[in-house]
Amino acid sequence: MRKKILFICGSLNQTSMMHKISSYFFDSECYFTPYYADGIIDYMVKKGFLDFTIMAGKFRELSINYLKSFGLEIDYKGEKHYYDLVFTCQDLIVPKNIRNKKLVLVQEGMTEPEGFMYHLVKKLNFPRWFACTSTTGLSDAYNLFFVASEGYKDLFNAKGVNPFKIKVTGIPNFDNALQYLDNDFPFKDYVLAATSDRRETFNFEDRKKFIRKVLKIANGRQVIFKLHPNENWNRATKEINKYAPKAQIYTMANTNHLIANCDVLVTKYSSVVFIALALNKEIYSDFNLDYLKTIMPIQNNGSSAREIARISKHLLLESKTGNTIRLNKHPRQVLKYVFD
Question: Looking at the structure, do residues 82 and 190 belong to the same domain, yes or no?
Fold first, then answer.
């Protein structure tokens, strides 16, 4: 009988990552679901209170549209089948129906800085989602955790993630920046401003100040704004038209292609900065650039998805042979079994 694998998606980036990994499981049945939760969080999703998250709103709509466009099998919340293996791009929430499954966590991109809420989660055992992606990996509910680089491995180790569960493979969508140079976007040599959805996620951002910063950096050069998929596009467009009326605005264009053709990238906290780094662009970010270089995803010509699938297939082999892999108890023996 063919093994069944569930891929838990989220943003368009997370969804396409899961799709790429799934393409290497030729002998298994692959199913996909938007990100989901249980209990009170699920209730809030149904009531529309969490439309700004990857569980609902634009994120879920874009994810479902992507899955349908490729003819992929959707099993919302993974309720239709028994799954032999589950992949997810985030462990801030681990639904009850996958807690007893073999679970693989794949780093989705950049993690947020360890701020005040991160320390509350660590010290007072607050829910991990209080601190957003800064608490990625802290659930310890997974068998394997695939990360972008040795620098990120060190970062997760410092946070207390089990080092024997971490495998540095690179991550899909960030492991082959050179491919984005081949594109048909019509403009070049401009200043690109990639906006954030901080206001939609109840964080403060002075957008007027950001726009003026972009214009100062541009110093007369062409400016293009790429709006975050989760932000209020109408509001953002009005603000840009008011303070930078000559700038061009894009909502659905391929961000990686825009980065490939720009001279300068201006952003705040965004994973897109990694593509700009790999392409040696001039960058202005709220992150320290020297630090970003230490954690930058490895570039391996797009082989991360294949390597993640190759290693994860050992978890399916485990169920076929009846052997049980317990990563917490015998890490060295397990690593020899999984990685040899």
Answer: no
